[in-house]
Design goal:
53 residues, alpha+beta, 3 strands
């Protein structure tokens, strides 16, 4: 995240070793807590960036 400034669901899954449903829940929770901002509709092509970046 720090290197690219963004992350996808698939990248998050690979980094953390969690399933797709778990990664989706995790990422949406981080959006809810205003850590990440979501770009794009839920599904392929969705990016998550650090809020304020």
């Amino acid at each position: 995240m720090k290197e690219k400034g963004k992350i996808t669901n698939l990248e998050y899954q690979k980094l953390t070793g969690v399933s797709k449903p778990t990664s989706t829940r995790d990422l949406l929770e981080l959006v809810k807590k205003s850590v990440f901002k979501k770009f794009g509709k839920t599904g392929k092509g969705t990016l998550y960036k650090l809020k304020g970046s």
